[in-house]
Write a structure and sequence with these properties.
Blueprint: E1 2-4, H1 5-11, H2 18-27, E2 31-37, E3 45-56, E4 59-68, E5 75-79, E6 89-93, E7 108-110, E8 113-115, E9 118-119, E10 136-137, H3 147-150, E11 156-161, H4 172-183, E12 205-207, E13 215-222, H5 232-240, H6 248-260, E14 265-268, E15 276-280, E16 285-288, E17 294-297, E18 302-305, E19 310-313, E20 317-318, E21 332-338, H7 341-344, H8 347-350, H9 356-363, H10 369-384, E22 388-389, E23 393-395, H11 399-404, E24 409-412, H12 413-420, H13 426-435, E25 439-443, E26 446-450, H14 461-472, H15 504-513, E27 517-518, E28 524-525, H16 527-533, E29 552-553, H17 558-569, E30 576-587, E31 593-604, H18 621-634, E32 641-645, E33 651-661, E34 683-691, H19 693-699, E35 713-718, H20 719-723, E36 739-748, H21 753-763, E37 768-777, E38 786-795, H22 804-822, E39 825-826
Parallel strand pairs: 12-15, 27-30
Antiparallel strand pairs: 1-11, 2-11, 3-4, 3-6, 4-5, 6-9, 6-10, 7-8, 13-21, 13-22, 13-23, 14-21, 15-18, 16-17, 18-19, 19-20, 24-26, 25-26, 28-29, 30-31, 31-35, 32-33, 33-34, 34-35, 36-38, 36-39, 37-38
Helix pairs in contact: 1-4, 5-6, 6-10, 15-18, 21-22
């Protein structure tokens, strides 16, 4: 459901901001999917009147327009729109105006003719995706008035994603009810007074399937001017709700649907034969819908028909033959019906359709709305298109059955407390239920509540309790019980959980999905192993160890993993990929014990099991590195990770790296001439590398023993480094073309490619959308101690096409900085 905030505030206007309103709706269960301005930001755009037009002497497709904008003299404006003509009101951008697309209007000369402004299309003002011509305004639009004020464009279009049980909120009325309840404010009453009946003409109505259509309301309106233009205020409200304006009659039925939630349809009465019949379709009965599609129906389909043929698929879409014909229809039959949701559910999808009408009827519409909507629509039609209204025809044989569904609900205060977990005062409960529009009667120990016809989802006491918690506010419910309903041994609280956090189970599953197996080892290890793997650490000694081989607490998880690997290798398990999560323990400078959660792993053997479809090879450093990058990817931290060559007493010299996290190093701004590549603060979070050769021999992992077919690789990371993630942020995909430039750069062999990439990011500007290293070459042709690194830069502007000068400027700047900072040169 998409709606205009201004329209909603005409029904209920609490003293809260737009952001507060959005947050309030979301917390009430009406999740807001998006919010956007109804127009782009612009200034100096006014209402103008085209006085006259003349062909441009040197361009066939251009016209010279004289436009009155309320100034002393009319403006001369050159325009190329096909609908530019005399005696129409238009949107005029004056000299100095700035439009949403970045265009600034200046006095100019077009093909030798002076132009002092611009006639604007809706798309140029950010009011539509595309436009066929300039924007035409009503004939009574005041010349010279700012367009922003005339159309009241200081508004937002808000889109809410409703759950299927909240069909009552598929209207401004329904949403206004919610906002009024949440803010304890008054709600505007429905303007649906009965119109004067000035015609005695009627159309007979028969309802054959009263269970599928319990209520059918119709009215004939004669002398209608179907060619009249839809008022601009109504067009704007429809546009801001995501509905295209068609013609006045159809727009009015759509408007009432959005306003009250009752779908309606108007027939051209002159196209009907006999009268209206609501019946089931016959086998293989066909109907051509308003969208031009011809469908073949069966007995499961409910149709609106005359005495000759089907006219509409009930609750879904009208037929082509009986629809309103703009300028030709003068007598219409207006219908407003209530359909059983079961009769409509799935029918639209079975024909590949989904309409605003079916979306509402499938979820349930208030059975009291048809009469109200009929009066409201009649009122608008008479005001806008004129005519004489006939008496309302109502068929409602099953109304008693509908009302019988609204049975009283007994609600006990003790039950409310037991389910909510805290004591909600009697007065507060009574006020909430009353504001929800429910009938409330106090009884002993609680209330007797009468449901309302617009809430299909309230039928039991637990439904009422859910409403109490929702309206009272989930964020106000205590996180620990305030009532002692049953004797308990301990209290429990709800621990807060950040949306950005990565759960431990997700981390484990990621490793399992990459072929790892989880192991659990002892936290007590052999002091000799600790001295071997971490001679500089100070382990915590146990006062009463289980055995001499479990004398100290582990300072990292590698001892347990290595022992587990030895156990498996001794049993001819060549391919080992295992991990463990747990605590490591260390003494700080003050002698206090510190513990930290980490994840560690050990990998050795072939990368994949032997198969006919691929060659077997031992796992290498970069295979394990890719596993760790996958873990950092869970929290979208890939760009913050740095692997830097380092030495560790347990790891192979030259095949070991420390792992650290940094802040993203991407310099913003189009001009990055003065950008610097100074590295931000780095926090070491772990290690990765091959087991040291001396330890391989001591621990029996040497390839000479035949137990392993390759090196043993170890890694260890603090869990907090992986758990702290980033919430994804939406970024609109640019509609403009991207440009890729490839650079082959020669740098010193000892300089890591990551440093090259960081420098490029820091100096390439804000238009860089992708940076990829796609080739590495080393050979005599590029010199001793050198390597060639090929990278691709993708540049793209979010709101326009980049020109060659801008692209070349950005690339040249990157090449120059790489030369200055890394002594990198382009490969010839």
């Amino acid at each position: 459901m998409k709606f205009s905030e201004q329209w909603l505030r005409e029904w209920v206007n609490p003293n809260i901001s737009t952001d507060e309103l959005v947050a309030q709706l979301t917390m009430a269960g009406l999740e807001v999917d998006g919010i956007e301005a109804v127009a782009g930001q612009f200034n100096a755009v006014v209402v103008g009147n085209v006085l006259e037009t003349a062909p441009h002497p040197d361009a066939k497709k251009l016209q010279l327009c004289k436009v009155d904008v309320g100034a002393e003299q009319p403006l001369s404006i050159v325009c190329g729109a096909a609908n530019a003509r005399a005696d129409i009101k238009v949107a005029v951008a004056l000299i100095g105006a700035k439009l949403p697309n970045g265009l600034e209007i200046k006095a100019t000369t077009i093909r030798g003719q002076d132009s002092s402004g611009m006639l604007c299309a809706e798309s140029e003002l950010g009011m539509a995706e595309k436009s066929d011509g300039i924007m035409e305004l009503p004939s009574d639009a005041p010349v010279g008035e700012a367009l922003y004020d005339y159309l009241a464009l200081n508004d937002h279009a808000i889109e809410v994603d409703l759950t299927p049980n909240r069909g009552d909120c598929l209207s401004i009325l329904g949403l206004a009810r919610e906002v009024a309840v949440l803010n304890r404010t008054d709600l505007k009453s429905i303007d649906a007074a009965a119109v004067a009946v000035t015609s005695d003409r009627q159309c007979p109505v028969e309802v054959e399937d009263t269970q599928a259509c319990p209520t059918y309301v119709g009215r004939v309106i004669e002398g209608v001017n179907s060619a009249v233009a839809t008022p601009i205020w109504m067009q704007e409200r429809l546009r801001r709700s995501g509905i295209r304006s068609i013609d006045a009659i159809v727009d009015i039925t759509n408007y009432v649907m959005l306003e009250l939630g009752q779908p309606m349809h108007a027939f051209d009465l002159d196209q009907l034969d006999g009268g209206i019949r609501v019946r089931r379709a016959t086998e293989k009965e066909s109907l051509t819908l308003l969208d031009g599609q011809t469908i073949e129906m069966g007995a499961e389909s409910l149709v609106i028909a005359d005495h000759k043929q089907a006219l509409a698929l009930a609750g879904v879409m009208g037929g082509e033959g009986s629809g309103i014909q703009t300028g030709k229809t003068h007598t219409l039959f207006l219908e407003s019906a209530h359909f059983d949701p079961v009769a409509i559910a799935g029918k639209a999808r079975s024909f590949g359709l989904h309409t605003d009408s079916s979306h509402r009827f499938e979820r349930g519409v208030d059975f009291n709305l048809p009469q109200v909507a009929m009066e409201r629509a009649s009122q608008l039609i008479l005001e806008i298109a004129g005519g004489q209204a006939g008496p309302i025809t109502t068929v409602s044989e099953e109304r008693g059955a509908l009302e019988a569904c609204l049975e009283p609900i007994d609600l006990k205060h003790q039950h409310v407390e037991s389910l909510l977990g805290f004591s909600l005062p009697y007065d507060e409960i009574t006020q909430i239920l009353t504001r929800l529009g429910l009938g409330v009667e106090a009884v002993e120990g609680g209330w007797r509540v009468m449901p309302t016809s617009f809430r299909f989802d309230i039928r039991r006491d637990v439904d009422l309790i859910e409403e109490l918690g929702r309206i009272y506010g989930y964020n106000q419910i205590p996180t620990s019980p305030t009532l002692k309903l049953e004797p308990v041994d301990s209290e429990s609280t709800i621990d807060p959980f950040s949306e950005a956090a990565v759960p431990l189970l997700t981390i484990k599953n990621a490793l399992v999905n990459r072929g790892f197996q989880e192991v659990i080892t002892y936290s007590f290890v052999d002091p000799a192993w600790e001295r071997l793997l971490a001679p500089d650490a100070q382990p915590v000694a146990l006062a009463n160890p289980i055995s001499a081989e479990m004398g100290v607490m582990r300072t990292h998880l590698w001892p347990g993993l290595i022992k587990a690997a030895q156990h498996n290798l001794n049993r001819q398990q060549e391919r080992i990929r295992m991990f463990e999560t747990g605590l490591r323990f260390r003494l700080n400078r003050e002698g206090a014990i510190e513990q930290e959660e980490v994840v560690a792993g050990l990998v050795t053997g072939p990368l994949l099991d032997d198969r006919w479809c691929h060659e077997s090879r031992p796992v290498d450093f970069f295979d394990v590195k890719s596993d760790l990058m996958a873990l950092f990817g869970l929290g979208r931290n890939e760009e913050r990770v740095r692997f830097e060559k380092a030495s560790h007493c347990a790891l192979h010299p030259g095949q070991a790296a420390s792992i650290s996290l940094t802040d993203p190093l991407v310099t913003k701004g189009v001009d990055s001439e003065k950008a610097t590549a100074t590295a931000p603060e780095q926090v070491q979070v772990g290690w990765i590398g091959a087991l040291h050769p001396s330890l391989e021999n001591k621990l029996g992992f040497s390839t000479k023993t035949g137990k392993v077919s390759g090196k043993v690789y170890l890694f260890e990371l603090t869990l907090n480094a992986i758990r702290k993630g980033n919430i994804p942020k939406f970024r609109e995909v640019s509609k403009f073309p991207a440009v890729r430039r490839d650079l082959a750069l020669i740098i010193d062999q000892d300089k890591p490619a990551s440093e090259l990439l960081r420098t490029i990011k820091a100096h390439s500007g804000e238009w860089l959308t992708d940076l990829m290293l796609f080739d590495l070459y080393e050979g005599d042709s590029i010199g001793t101690g050198k390597k060639s690194v090929a990278v691709s830069l993708t540049l793209q502007h979010p709101s326009r096409t980049l020109n060659d000068d801008e692209i070349n400027h950005a690339v040249d700047r990157v090449i120059r900085v790489l030369k200055e900072e890394l002594d990198a040169v382009l490969r010839e």
